[in-house]
Request: fold
Amino acid sequence: MEAIKKVTVLLKKIKESRPVIHHITNYVTMNDSANIVLAVGGSPIMANDMAEVEEVVAISRALVLNIGTPNHDNFRSMLLAGKKANELGIPIVFDPVGAGATTFRKEICSRLLTDIKPAVIKGNISEIMQLAGLNGYFHGIDSYLDIDNGKELVRELAGKLNCIVAATGRRDMVSDGEITFIINNGHEMLSRITGTGCMTSSLIGAFCSVTQDYLTGAAGGIMAMGISGQLAFGSLLPNEGVGTFKARLFDSVCKLSEDTFIKEGEVDVE
Reply:
């Protein structure tokens, strides 16, 4: 309950300060990522040209890097923006979408993790396994791993990289290398629409923008998506499907409150 209360404090800060969240993200979900930040109370900016990313980072409170649709220009922009964010003490959320799927993505992940220091790395368990140098089974962007092994993997990688590592799946795991949160919110319908993982990274960026407690910030972003997914599904009528669910998901994020987190949040601390 203490962890959930800390998250609610961050939610209030987001709504009060409307932090600018800079994204260099994938083209498939860019609009949804921007709108989810607006829904939670932040202010998104999606600048990705090398000519301006350093200036944009300087006026932002967090930077979200997402390699879902990688290209060489965006990669160079990510390096420039990431280095500037590190210089200014601005938290970086790195979403290694499809890590390990191609040689190019492997090279991007390796270079980014060498040249910049993220505050949070968020991926599904397959992507986290790839970052850890393990031979994880890769199928699209979905795979599964035993929860106990997953906890150890997340904890060890967080310690190795000295940052928060979050692995999403049937149960979400977030660790700083010592403390691990197991989050039990969410609904399988979230996997039926494109972009919920990318939107989760954007929410993490919003929560981390108002704190230096990035463990709580990462947990807050993941809980926000999970709880909203549950509420959106619960509101559906029998003749309503994924289209209505997506609209209700944004509504649910927009209406998140302290009471919602306390009532619906399910977190174990280990």
Q: What stands out?
A: Residues 134-144 have pLDDT under 50 and may be disordered. Strands lie at 20-24, 43-45, 62-66, 92-95, 120-124, 164-168, 172-175, 180-183, 267-269. The two ends are 13 Å apart (CA to CA). The first strand starts at residue 20 and ends at 24.
